[in-house]
Please model this.
Amino acid sequence: MKCIIKKVYYCDFCKKKGLRKDAIENHENHCTVNPNRDCGLCNNNIGVYRYPGEVATFKDERFIGVTAASYLLILSDIRLKTNNCPACILASIRELRARLDKTGVWFYIGQPEFDYAKESQKWLSEVYNENAQQGLIDGF
Ligand SMILES: [Zn+2]
Ligand SMILES: [Zn+2]
Model:
């Protein structure tokens, strides 16, 4: 039997961890919970868009939640401001959700209005490949 003690590196912002320091450092830079993130997907300078508008809520006996209509409005504003980049959308939604959480408001990351896995796959196959060919993105 062998027993090896290794260092584990943890992201300062989310729950991600790993054994490679450089990989976690790179992840932290792009992490969708990092308020000062650089987007590795679209290279825009937004990173996280802070939705400034009103959020309409409803209350039932269990919780206070964001209304579906308000959610759709917020999502379309975020899409516009992030040029529809899935990673920037996710980061912006997470930022808003964390803010609302503190006030006791429940914010559901809705399906099928926003499916990160599906949209990022689509983004990579369409936009990223196109931009990479034009030399607009230098790897991420
Ligand atoms: Zn992270
Ligand atoms: Zn982005």
Summary: The pocket of zinc ion (ligand 1) is lined by residues 11, 13-14, 16, 27-28, 31, 33 (CB under 6 Å).
